[in-house]
Each structure stands twice: as structure tokens, then as C-alpha cells.
Amino acid sequence: MNEPITDRHPFGHAISSEEIRARFAGCRQWEERLRQIILLAKALPELPEALKTPETALSGCENRVWLGHVRQEDGSLHFYAASDGRIVKGLLAIVLTAVEGKTPAQLAGQDPLAPFDDLGLRAELSVSRAGGLAAIAGRINAIVDSYIAN
């Protein structure tokens, strides 16, 4: 998609992968991790309704999820996302931190879900949330592949 996005999210910019790791470093129990996920969800701005299109909608997720992107003039990708569910929205924020502002070449061959392993979250997610994350990763990989192939 190449439509203008005026609402920037802080993930990958003001909130870095290092900051996400620091937030989760002191969490010993799932409830503490869940609280951090919900706090991250609150930092993800609402997506304008105009960007919640059939093209950006994802299937395979427990909640409604939208994930789109814009290629910037410098070749980097700006991803935007939303979900109706607080937890899924927080999970999206973690993914966005890992992929935002990178070029397709930088993202090629990378697992967008690697942060969940680093944070010890993947094993604690329900089967349906894990399936939703797989759909999110699949969309990101398809976007990256579309630029690599050209």
C-alpha cells in the first residue's frame, strides 16, 4: 500500500527492541508479562477506519486484526496494525518493534516472531494466539517477499 500514514506509532522508534527486553527482564510470572503486553497495547495508536480494509485484514486470528504497510522514500517499510483485542494489540506492538523502519533486504530471512522467543512469551501463548501470530508473520513475510522478488 502506498497511502499516506500520518499517525506514527512509537514502536521501533521511541520504543526499541532493547526497551522491550528491559520491560520484560524483571517479569517472573505470566501475569507480569501479560501486564507489560497490555501496557504496550495502550501505546499503539488507534488505526484510522480508512486503513481497516479487506486488504489489511488478517484471517486466522482470534480477534479482528489489520496489518498494512507503506514503503518510505528511503526504501524502509512503515508497518501499521490494529486489533480489537488488548492482548493481540500488545503482541502486535512487539512485532512492530522488530520490523518497523527496516528495509525488505534487512527483513528478508528474519523471523518477525523471534522477539517472542527472546522474551520467553511464545511458549506461554494459547494455541489460537500462536496461530494469530503465525498469520501476522506470514503477512509480514509476504510483504517482504513482494519487494525482494521485484
From TrEMBL:
Every Fe-S metabolism associated domain range: 23-141
UniProt xrefs under InterPro entries: Cysteine_desulfurase_CsdE, Fe-S_metab-assoc_dom
Source organism superkingdom: Bacteria
Active-site residues from the entry: 61 (cysteine persulfide intermediate)
Family according to the record: Belongs to the SufE family.
NCBIfam families, per database record: FeS_syn_CsdE
PANTHER family (alphabetical): SUFE-LIKE PROTEIN 2, CHLOROPLASTIC, SULFUR ACCEPTOR PROTEIN CSDE
Protein name as annotated: Cysteine desulfuration protein SufE
Protein source organism: Sodalis ligni
Organism classification: Bacteria, Pseudomonadati, Pseudomonadota, Gammaproteobacteria, Enterobacterales
